[in-house]
Amino acid sequence: GETLPVAELLKRLEIQVPGEVVGIEFEREHGRWVYEFKIIDGGGRLLEVYMDAQTGAVLSMEED
Asked: In the β-sheet with 58-63, what is the strand arrangement from edge to edge?
């Protein structure tokens, strides 16, 4: 009940940040569960996308 299924989050992520997911981390930050997805976008950049595991909201995104 605390998190959405990772398959659902991946579907949402694909719409918001297209690219190939090459890594996933799952951790508790500031009292909530957060997924960190490492994505290689169409331009070849490595992005780190942080997503709230309960709501599916993208919390932040940065180039690595």
From this structure: 20-29, 32-40, 46-52, 58-63
Q: In angstroms, what CA-CA distances link 27 with 31, 41, 43?
A: 10, 23, 28
Tens-digit pLDDT profile for residues 22-46 = 999 999 999 999 999 999 999 999 9
Given the structure tokens 């942080």, which residue do they identify? 50
Q: Cα dist. 15→8, 11, 18, 35, 50 in Å?
A: 11, 7, 6, 16, 15
